[in-house]
Amino acid sequence: MKLSKSDYMLGDFCARALWLKKHKPKLLPQTENEWCASGYDVQNLAQKLYPGGVVVPCQIWEFDKGAELTKTLSAQHDILFEAVAKLPLGPVCRIDILQKEGRKWNLIEIKATTSVQDDHIKDLAFQYFVFSNAGYKIKNCYVLHLNKDYNRKKKLNIKKLFTLKNVTDDVLDLYEETKEQILFLSEIQEQEKEPRAPIYKSCQQCDFYDYCCKKVPQYSIWDIFSAPTADKIFKKIKSYDINDLNASDYDGKQFIDIDAWQKQKIHCEKDNIRGFLNTLKYPLYYLDYETIEPAIPLFENSRPYQQIPFQFSLHVQKTVGGKVTHFGFLHQDKSDPRRDLAEALVEKCGKRGSVIVYNENFEKKRNEELAQLFPDLAKDILNINKRIVDLLVPFRSRALYHYKQHSSASIKKVLPAFTKLSYDKLDIKNGGEAMDGYFKFINGELTPKEEDILFSGLDKYCAQDTYAMVLLMDVLYKKAKS
Ligand code: SF4
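Above: the input entities. Below: the structure tokens describing the complete assembly.
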């Protein structure tokens, strides 16, 4: 049975997951096989650094054909893209770039990240094992990744956009371990019987979670504790159920979460809520940004994965519990949105009054970047930062906590716990969808009609994020008075 690089990486995460993929593939979620746009673009751009490179012409599943073609083409060319190697007993792989150096070859793996990660080394160790045992003499192994410090000028400089990191020593260090793991996983995937595997918190990231973790309640000890602590607790109480914990064994937030869940109650610390409310200065400006973070910088003066704000929503409230007025900014043009956004922000946020955000690090960082980019607006933008008050604080600190929050202070959990407002009926339901939609717009992938639908969805979504904060502020005032 074939053992591809993705099989190997899955099996390395959990051998049972590999077995389930091979023997019970219907358990996998039926998602469309979509290309990751940013990863695909990074791959294409990186190939431009190797002029004269030849793509091995075979489909992604044609490993036999690809391996044959790679053998033939490697005798004629010094650089091959998507080169394939295959071993008789099953391991197969495709390397992004196979580059000749003297009589040997370099393996180069392209990654759309801004650093080398542990998985990249494992990935290359697998490729090294397959290519070297298929008869290719390997000189060096590299990860070609994005350079996080590259600041784009008018024209994209591909040489500066990428960093080539030699990881040969790290790959060689893993050789024996990789060999053993390949043998182990090859046997596992061939065996008839499903392997047993203990379940851990890391199962929450696995596609087979619903199948393996039926005994874990929807809200469990995994949501309250770190992975090692949750494992220790499970060993002791043999249960994942929060109802089986003794709340008095814990303190701080963990006690509050357990106690609130077991009693299905709301935890409220009035003095702390009042302390928070006393820091507010009216009028209040409830502010929220939507951003994109392109892997390849789209605009002058931006870096890989820099968050580029393209939209903000602002609800303004002059008095406690008073009426709110709304202003929304959405850049409906494919150019750099930041100047227009910064000007609108400065104009609409006034000079005084608290600026309410949910998770201040995000908005503050965007504002600092805007101030640096536009020195003429810096004073006003940084004045906004000085006025920021983080509405996340009373919820994260558990000054107010609803058992339905399930140990999360995310606004998407807090809002439905305390109000009737929900994101369910919106066309765009979260920041990820907003980002994907706007990215498609920037890339010219939408028809004019689709653009209109997107803009309307973005307007409603972003406005709801700030209106949600208005409602949560009301909740805090009511709790403080009650
Ligand atoms: S849910 Fe856990 S045990 Fe099951 S396959 Fe995934 S990682 Fe392995």
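Note for the figure: Residues 32-36 have pLDDT under 50 and may be disordered.
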